[in-house]
Amino acid sequence: MKATVDVRTIARSAGRKRETGTMKRRDVLLAGAGAFALPAYLQLTSEGALAQGAGRTLLLAAPGTPEGFDGDALRPGTQETVVQVYEGLTRYGRVQRGDRTYLDPSEIEGHLAEKWTVSDDGLRYVFTLREGVKSPYGNELTAADVEWSWAKSFAQRRTGAFIASVSNVTAVKALSRREVEFTLSAPSSILLAALTLYVPGIYDSTEVKKHATAEDPWGLRWMENNTAGFGAYHLRSVRPGEQAEFVSNPNYFRGRPHFERVIYRAVPSGASRTTLLRSGQVQWIDRPTVQQVLDMQRDRRVKVQDQAGRAMASVRMNTAMKPFDDVRVRRAMNFAVNKEAIKQGVMLGTGEIARSIVPPIVRDYDPSFFAYDHNPERARALLAEAGHPNGFEVELLFSNIWWWEEPMAVQIADQLKAVGITCKPQRITGSDLRARGAPARQDMPLFTFEDGPIVLDPVYALALMASSTGVSNRAKYANPAFDALVQRAATSPDRAVQTQAVKEAQRIWMEDAPWILTVYPQTFEAMAPNISGWVPHPDEHERWVDLKVG
């Protein structure tokens, strides 16, 4: 009979068993009614079959369990799950292309808010909340919840505070039970799009306040293991390193989701996650590698869907540290790297070569300023001009946050040898990489990272990743002329002015060359063949509420 896999055993075994690479098709044989050829350490249980047989449980395999549920303090697994719990005042429209549904960034519609008004000067928005929106605790959404939630983000001075800053929001105030006022310092071209986000999250403040203390007024410690939102799902329990269990919000205002329960299992090994999917023991896996995707595309037991990427896989150069404080060195690094070779060798031919910091799926993307085709001779000449005729030595730090980091670091180091640069790849932990790239530190001269806008807007992309105050500007890039252009685009109500400012900002950023441009990786999702409904989102995380069987 068909074997059933105990994913808890995988989680325990992953630390003892070294992953040996991508699983080939021969490793899991399609055997009809026969047993699958599974590694010996995968124990058998009926839990996976029971979960799928129920039809209302989604079993998902991810690298680990979430390490917290505060969207203002992203940790491993946080963003993947808080997007299921916290939803925005607005949302993007939807458009149908063939048998797939996509977001339409040109259309913003009401979500937790049903409508809004804007003052003539663009400095005051009043949102009317949808009536009857309730959390799993039974508390109805009020303007006081919105005011409290934004106050939390302002106080934390992290992701939500950046969203407020880039949207020009200075204050959020409840006017009545269902009306909430946003006051802006200047008109904002991106506010309505920013309000589609999970952060600042809209919390059930009535519930959170029960768990707040004088030392912890926002209930942040409680949020490490609990959720209180108005979205489609709610955390029931979490066992670190094993699994988190989510259940649907019985009061969800858009109706009952297909999946009433989601089991988010920790399966650290990517090869094991693909094994579980191919053998039918889970219905969704988190972020397979490109090689795994290519293997699974030939397997009729798996469905793989894709979407153009919005995040760039790049190598960052710290513009405040030698030798990368010299623009000639940064340009030389770009000329030395063969982007097509990276696309073929690392991304296996998938994705799109990056030619701007604004991704191709966002309006006003302009690749015309890209000037860094592979040219080792030009790289050597620039290095000589900068006083490095014999090159230099540097460490290239990488982590395991994204699967492509190590192979890209190795390939780039090999390519840099041709221009005399001795580049030494060095692995550090993902937590260390994030901490060292934080605004208060930023002490890495050269490192890998992947970033992209979670708001489908060019002004947001530029502000997030390249303005001097951007929370994802992790290598101290600063150019006052660039910042002024971003501010002009962010505050002008004239779309033509915005477009021109965005274009000029892309030109300046390309000339300053703070990153080694490589590829926009393609986004892939792998699922059971009977799962449908996936709608790609700019944060590249599925929404369980969209998914169904059949």
What does this structure look like?
This protein has 550 residues and is α+β, with helices and mostly antiparallel strands. The chain has three domains: 7-73 and 231-305 and 524-549, Periplasmic binding protein-like II (D-Maltodextrin-Binding Protein, domain 2), CATH 3.40.190.10; 90-209, Dipeptide-binding Protein, Domain 1 (Dipeptide-binding Protein, domain 1); 312-520, Dipeptide-binding Protein, Domain 3 (Dipeptide-binding Protein, domain 3, Roll). 28% of the residues lie in helices and 21% in strands. The chain contains 18 helices and 21 strands. It has helices spanning 7-14, 47-54, 78-82, 143-156, 159-166, 191-194, 205-208, 220-223, 270-278, 290-296, 327-336, 339-345, 376-385, 405-416, 430-436, 458-465, 480-491, 495-512, and strands at residues 57-62, 90-97, 100-110, 113-118, 124-129, 169-174, 179-184, 233-239, 243-248, 261-266, 284-285, 303-307, 312-317, 352-353, 393-398, 422-427, 446-451, 515-520, 523-527, 531-532, 548-549. The strands form six sheets. Strands 8-9-10-1-11-19-12 form a seven-stranded mixed β-sheet, with helices on one face. Strands 4-5-7-6 form a four-stranded antiparallel β-sheet. The chain has a four-stranded antiparallel β-sheet with strand order 14-18-13-17. Strand 8 (233-239) and strand 9 form a beta hairpin. Helix 4 packs across helix 5 (159-166) and helix 16 (458-465) packs antiparallel against helix 17 (480-491). The relative contact order is 0.14. The model is unreliable at 1-53 (pLDDT under 50). Belongs to the bacterial solute-binding protein 5 family.
